[in-house]
Design a protein that fits this description.
mainly alpha; transmembrane; transmembrane helix; membrane
Length: 39
């Protein structure tokens, strides 16, 4: 029985790892500054 639990945990870890690895990397965007134009 412990072998099935171990195998399920390994499968869950692999699933989470694959999802994390394939997620798009978010690059830090530079802060958007509005042009200084008096209106």
């Amino acid at each position: 029985m412990w072998y099935l639990m171990l195998e399920a945990l390994v499968a869950l870890f692999l699933l989470v790892f694959i999802v994390w690895w394939t997620m798009p990397r978010k690059k830090k965007a530079p802060p958007v500054r509005k042009p200084d134009r008096p209106e």
